[in-house]
Design brief:
Pfam families: BamE, OmpA. The protein is of the alpha+beta class. Helices cover 29% and strands 27% of the residues. The chain folds into two domains: 3-81, Beta-lactamase Inhibitory Protein, Chain:B, domain 1; 95-223, OmpA-like domain (60s Ribosomal Protein L30, Chain: A, 2-Layer Sandwich), CATH 3.30.1330. It has seven helices and eight strands; from the N terminus they run H-H-E-E-E-H-E-E-H-H-E-H-E-H-E. The strands form two sheets. It has a four-stranded antiparallel beta sheet with strand order 3-2-1-4, with no helix packed on it. A four-stranded mixed beta sheet has the order 5-8-6-7.
């Protein structure tokens, strides 16, 4: 990674944009609503094999947008600005971040949400994800399960269904041995569609078109 990646971190960037530039934070900052990311970079000093470790802080607002950045030691900014700072050697990144999107149509029967309604196919997909977490010995920070529906039906009904399905997946993950205290479940209803489909009349074509919106997203964050 070159110094330019660090220099491109500026107010207004989203967390995903920051992650693309300099990766996940190197220190655990908490579980939810985190507004500070901290990094440690090793800069070549220009003298023999000497490197200097600099801590870099990125601050976010409530919308997860960068508000400011700061070096713990202001002199570290010289390594970014200096033409001699050709190489930035980051500390070993042991962070683990996985986002899995599962189709609700493959997880539950139509309109269902109970644990008993979870399909065999759905269980197998979740089991595979859990097995990977255990195989890689992930030290979990948190898991967020978010349920989504299409726009068919009332706002209240869709929110209730999405929350119930997310809660069912949360319970199933806990049954597979993941720490229940680290798993949160949320319902988004139809508020975050990934596809827009024309028409208001409910037809088989509309139901099929809206299929990608009926989903459950599982985000896993931790360290290996």
């Amino acid at each position: 990674m070159s110094p330019d990646h660090v220099k491109r971190i500026r107010p207004g960037l989203s967390k995903d944009q920051v992650r693309l530039e300099i990766g996940n934070p190197h220190f655990s900052e908490g579980l939810f609503a985190v507004h500070v990311w901290n990094y440690a970079f090793n800069f070549y000093s220009g003298k023999d094999n000497e490197y200097v470790t600099c801590q870099f802080r990125v601050n976010y607002d409530s919308d997860d947008r960068v508000t400011s950045t700061r070096w713990k030691n202001p002199d570290c900014n010289n390594y970014i600005s200096s033409a001699a700072a050709v190489t930035v050697v980051p500390t070993v990144d042991k962070s683990y971040h996985q986002r899995v999107t599962l189709s609700s149509d493959g997880l539950f029967a139509f309109g269902k949400y109970d644990l008993n309604d979870l399909t065999t196919q759905g269980r197998e997909k979740i089991d595979g994800m859990v097995a990977k977490i255990k195989q890689e010995n992930v030290n979990l920070s948190y898991i967020v399960v978010t349920g989504h529906t299409d726009r068919i039906g009332t706002e209240t009904a869709n929110f209730t269904l999405s929350k119930a399905r997310a809660e069912t997946i949360r319970k199933y993950l806990a049954q597979q041995g993941l720490d229940d205290k680290l798993i949160r479940a949320y319902g988004a209803g139809a508020s975050q569609p990934v596809i827009q489909c024309p028409g208001q009349q409910i037809t088989p074509q509309l139901v099929q078109c809206l299929q990608p919106n009926r989903r459950v997203e599982i985000e896993v964050v931790g360290e290996t």
